[in-house]
Amino acid sequence: MTRKLENETVQKINSMEIPVIMMNRNTSGLKCPTVSIDNFRAAYEVTNYLIDHGHTRIALFRNSVDIDAFGVEQYSGFERALAEHDIDIDRSLVKYGEFKIQKSYELMKGLIEEGNVPTAVIATSDVMAIGVCNALLDSNFAFQYRCKHVGTLLRENKRKIFSMSSPFIAFLV
To answer: Rounded to two decimals, what is the model's pTM?
Structure first.
């Protein structure tokens, strides 16, 4: 499991004479089976779920760059679901959390302080979701938000979330 494989690493894996299975990545040029989720469909379905429950101001917390195929697929699923419901993407609600708790925390706090609070948030990694959750807790949104977890297990410690087991989480007003 890895974020990105360099070309040299792909060549080494392809030349190995042992079985290799790549988990959670489809890497171009790699000649081995992969096991991963359908990132487009996951983002599409969670976005549709939120829209079906009345949400039109949906924030997306994602990686900072589009170098990872799974990030591109997630964004495409999010974008398609909004487009099919004639909802324009609010670029001020697309945040680049860089897979970091603190960065996502600061970005969510910024939305709150600006009065630009979405009605729902999709975080494309557990680390970013933790940052978002903690910002909401610290801003006393914990009681205003109902959490609907998409296959997620949260562990809390004194009003701080420190562990999560799913790549997506949605917060519903």
So the answer is: 0.75
